[in-house]
Amino acid sequence: MRRFLPKSLQGQMLLAVALALLVAQGIGAGIAYRAQLEREENGIIHSLAFRMIGGRVLRQADGSEMRPPRGRPPRMGRLLRMDATPLLESDKRKRAFEAKLGDILSAQGLETAEIQVFERDIDDTPLGRFFERRRELRGRDGRPEPESVIIASVREQGSDQWLVARTLRDEREPRFLRNLIGQTLLIYVVLIGVIALILRRITKPLAALTRRVEDFAANPALSPDGRVEPQGPLDTRSLIAAHNAMEARIGALLDEKDVMLGAIGHDLKTPLAALRVRIESVDDDHERAKMAGTIEDITRTLDDILSLARVGRPSDPVEPTEISALTASVVEEFEDMGQAVELGDTTRIVLPVRATWLRRAIRNLASNALRYAGGACVTVEKRGNLAVISVADNGPGIPEDELGRMMEPFERGDPSRNRGTGGAGIGLALARAIAEQHGGSLVLRNRAEGGLNAELRLPIG
């Protein structure tokens, strides 16, 4: 059921208002229909009472007996006096009508011994043939056609005869239903239209703010010129203004961080370079090589840490790049150094990426495979809507419960920080950060035949 519900704020609000309006109109329609029935019933009862009282007064005035003329049915408005009630066993009495009619007659001074009110289909009376002939002669002229006859028979106190009055019940016009539907549609159009305009005024700036937040999350180095101007209702304007202030503060903090990292890199690399020069004066070749290796480890670790810190605010642009060619160039670098990294099957895929950073991620994964397994095979394939760069090795792999932890900064299988046995544990964390910078992910999984498979998964399109 939830799949069919609108997901946007505007859609959900419009649906809620439409359902509430439907319920309200349904209740209103029921009340209006009930009121119409009551008006119709009261009209019928008062018509019968008027004919009873009016005909009785005329009878007393001229002494007429009000018997039906011979050979033809009496007129509808004529009050009849009959020796027996016209009620048949098949007729269904209307008790509510009888009670209301009795109250009216009693209030007018007509004491009754018994009241019978019942309804018959017009086709079961002589009047039915009359209206049928009229339809044949005139056709339907748009006026309501009678569908039944309401008959009231009253026996007065102290009398054995029955006073009989009749009135017609017209078929209910569809006009009421048409008017109700038209009214509902009009209310829907007006109310939903007004609410849609109000919601649009609210949701349009929210949508712009959402896009800005998404863009800022992907690239915190966005220009301040692209910030959303406060607009819409006061609450929405306040939210946009608060976000702009927060974005400005985050940008300032990131700028301060970049300045600080640059200063740290400069202040540390300068003395390291000086030390590298000074150790050349050491006579012992073995000691000099160890010192140079230590300085190189410190320099590389520092470079990895600074790169990981800056990956969230890359300075190089995104450019369309042929992924298999970029991967092949990285593999060639290792081959030129005589290291066991080979290029497997590749598929030509062009993606907008930051080539320098992606090359760094592939290089880190291959270096990690060389360090722990002595070799690596790099492949490129298209898997659904993903471009997958896989670096597979035949090493010992990683325990399943530690796969996620290995991608955290400074986490590694070897607890030491020796570059020869694993380094500082930043390579995988940096590769994951670069993949996420491109909207992708880094996935580590152990191979069934042994070894580890590290996959950079980048979205296509």
From TrEMBL:
Residues 263-461 form the Histidine kinase domain. It is a multi-pass membrane protein. GO terms for molecular function: ATP binding; phosphorelay sensor kinase activity. It is found in: Cell membrane. It holds the Pfam family HATPase_c. Keywords: ATP-binding, Cell membrane, Kinase, Membrane, Nucleotide-binding, Phosphoprotein, Transferase, Transmembrane, Transmembrane helix. InterPro entries: 2C_sensor_his_kinase, HATPase_C_sf, HATPase_dom, His_kinase_dom, HisK_dim/P_dom, HisK_dim/P_sf, Sig_transdc_His_kin-like_C. It catalyses: ATP + protein L-histidine = ADP + protein N-phospho-L-histidine. Its EC number is 2.7.13.3. It comes from the Bacteria. Its main location: membrane. CDD domains: HATPase, HisKA. The keyword Hydrolase does not apply. One of its GO terms (cellular component) is plasma membrane. The chain crosses the membrane at residues 180-199. This is histidine kinase. It comes from Croceicoccus pelagius. The lineage of its organism: Bacteria, Pseudomonadati, Pseudomonadota, Alphaproteobacteria, Sphingomonadales.
